[in-house]
Amino acid sequence: MINVSVIGATGYVGEELLRLLSAHPEVSVKKAVSKSFAGQSLKDLYANFVPGKNIVLDESDGDAGEAEFVFLCLPHGESLKAAPKLLKKGHKVIDLSGDFRYDDVSLYEKWYNITHTAKQENQQAVYGLPEFFKDAIRNTDFASNPGCYTTTSILALAPLLKEGLVSEKGIVIDAKSGVTGAGRKEKLAYSYCETADNFKAYSVVNHRHTSEIEEQLSSISGQDVRLLFTPHLLPVKRGILATIYADMEEGADALSIAGAYEKYYGDAPFTHVLPHGQLPELKFVVGSNNCMIGFELSPRTGKLVIVSCTDNLIKGAAGQAIQNFNIMNGFEETLGLPQIAWYL
Ligand SMILES: NC(=O)C1=CN([C@@H]2O[C@H](COP(=O)(O)OP(=O)(O)OC[C@H]3O[C@@H](n4cnc5c(N)ncnc54)[C@H](OP(=O)(O)O)[C@@H]3O)[C@@H](O)[C@H]2O)C=CC1
Ligand SMILES: CC(=O)N[C@@H](CCC(=O)OP(=O)(O)O)C(=O)O
């Protein structure tokens, strides 16, 4: 059994993580930290935990107790303060915020408008996308979980860029997210009346995930990738669907594209590519740790259209964190993780 602690336990990601961890056969949750609800039982806030083990929320004192592993489910800027202290005390850390995702901290500082105060720890952090960095994840004590939009986008594009089947220029990612992607904020803009029966684009041309997607795709493919990323707020609770447009290079056809995906994801337990012409839907992935990808060629325009779906709270956050935890501990990658979506 591995003792773990969850900090930021009452947010949407923290709650989902605790729910998934409760079914993990090798995990014992020793501490769940909340600044706002310290002293209360988790089940008083989230009644879905009534049948589970009683978890009393602890003070947010930066102490992870006896836990070997600490999951940080804090807003960006907060992990920046918490992670260095925990690493110094010898804890292994998996951070779910954006604070340690960049190789180039100046990109973080520019896109998040925050001065990075833990540059040394940032160098230590491994980008927790198992499909591409499994060996590094296996050998680190500090994993930085990718963003939800970024996981969905990078998994769709990386094999095709790496194999030279699409151009690194002119890519457009048109992504839609469920409202839980914004966190458990008490803001009018995320309330039922403002989001239900509505659909809107936001942060057009300047969403911070643009830089994370570009940096990782450039690093994986060895090309200078520049792209447009447009997020939208979808009136559903969970799920991300990204429709991606890319210019095909010479030699790109249904067979070579399927072959490139097979090369990188043939053995990946959670990334599934549908046969040419079949497209994923949110209900095929929501409730699971899967990323599902489909594609269609447009010979008339020379463009490839890719559709990629994840559950933002699972493969986009809590599930991928557990996948990284499993790899860091030498467990089966799938341990404790849902492989079949809810569908309904
Ligand atoms: N929602 C999603 O789909 C995804 C989120 N992420 C990332 O995961 C992290 C957590 O996200 P999410 O659960 O959605 O966010 P929430 O806003 O729902 O939860 C964050 C929690 O952090 C705690 N907290 C501690 N310090 C602060 C502070 N200064 N300001 C606000 N909250 C604080 C709060 O709990 P308390 O007051 O009880 O301590 C809060 O509930 C973020 O970094 C986010 O970017 C990553 C991928 C997907
Ligand atoms: C719908 C919504 O608001 N989504 C969030 C992205 C999710 C998130 O929390 O960002 P990270 O994945 O980087 O942690 C946003 O656009 O800011």
- CATH class category name of the largest domain: Alpha Beta
For the record, what is the CATH homologous superfamily label of the largest domain?
Answer: Dihydrodipicolinate Reductase, domain 2
Mean pLDDT: 97
Q: Helix and strand string, N-terminal first?
A: EHEHEEHEHHEHEHEHEHEEHEEEH
Contiguous uncertain segments of 5+ residues: none
Tell me the number of helical segments per DSSP (H or I, 4 or more residues long): 11
Quick one: overall form?
globular
Q: What structural class is derived from the secondary structure elements?
A: alpha/beta
Note the main sheet. Answer: 7 strands, parallel
Rounded Rg: 19 Å
Major sheet: arrangement of strands = 3-2-1-4-5-7-6
Distance between the termini: 34 Å
- The fold-level CATH name of the largest domain is Dihydrodipicolinate Reductase, domain 2
How would you describe the overall organization of this protein?
- By secondary structure, the chain is of the alpha/beta class.
- It folds into 2 domains: 2-145 and 317-329, NAD(P)-binding Rossmann-like Domain (Rossmann fold, 3-Layer(aba) Sandwich), CATH 3.40.50.720; 149-310, Dihydrodipicolinate Reductase, domain 2, CATH 3.30.360.10.
- 31% of the residues lie in helices and 21% in strands.
- The protein contains 11 helices and 14 strands.
- The strands form 2 sheets. Strands 3-2-1-4-5-7-6 form a 7-stranded parallel beta sheet, sandwiched between helices. Strands 9-10-8-11-14-13-12 form a 7-stranded mixed beta sheet.
- The chain binds NADPH dihydro-nicotinamide-adenine-dinucleotide phosphate and N-acetyl-L-glutamyl 5-phosphate.
- NADPH dihydro-nicotinamide-adenine-dinucleotide phosphate binds next to helix 1 and helix 11.
